[in-house]
Amino acid sequence: MATTNDLKNGMVLKLDGGQLWSVVEFQHVKPGKGGAFVRTKLKHVLSGKVVDRTFNAGTKVETATVDRRGMQFSYKDGPDYVFMDTETFEQLPLTPETVGQAANYLLEGQDCTVAIHEGNPLFVELPAAVELVIEYTEPGVQGDRSTGGTKPARLETGYEIGVPLFITTGEKIKVDTRSGDYLGRVNS
């Protein structure tokens, strides 16, 4: 048990009859009149649904014990993704539902964090940005500038994102894993 005053980003709460919610962001608010309260943005761990929720300051909330383990993506086995615990070298197969959007940015040998609650894998956390190679994009034409439009580009993982017009096939770029946005070129 904790109170709403102890909330931190990434903390997992048990609410609404045992459902697991991860704290995305929170803000303590002390209005001039009335009691203080905590405004939160919570993400449902299994469905990924994000909701806004307000608690009175000091309200008791049940926290869930979530074990975050450093793992490495090893390979894809049919529909499942197999991860290896970097400490015990134990292999853990995860379903595509558990891996979720992280699958768009996963390469073999990539380090990530797998959150586990009571033996059940909940989700995969990647670093905020990853470096990937452009597998294919239409060639740029003379006059394409850094400002202006974007064009589709297929990453080495097979996922497609929008990149500036001057980016070419074979370039290594940095991609935001939370939004799928192009962040810039990587100088080799």
From TrEMBL:
SUPFAM superfamilies: Nucleic acid-binding proteins (SSF50249), Translation proteins SH3-like domain (SSF50104). It comes from the Bacteria. It is found in: Cytoplasm. GO terms for molecular function: translation elongation factor activity. Residues 130-185 form the Elongation factor P C-terminal domain. Its main location: cytoplasm. Residues 68-122 form the Translation elongation factor P/YeiP central domain. Keywords: Cytoplasm, Elongation factor, Protein biosynthesis. Pathway: Protein biosynthesis; polypeptide chain elongation. Transmembrane segments: none annotated. The keyword Transcription regulation does not apply. HAMAP family: EF_P (MF_00141). Belongs to the elongation factor P family. Involved in peptide bond synthesis. Stimulates efficient translation and peptide-bond synthesis on native or reconstituted 70S ribosomes in vitro. Probably functions indirectly by altering the affinity of the ribosome for aminoacyl-tRNA, thus increasing their reactivity as acceptors for peptidyl transferase. This is Elongation factor P. It comes from Streptomyces boetiae. The gene is efp.
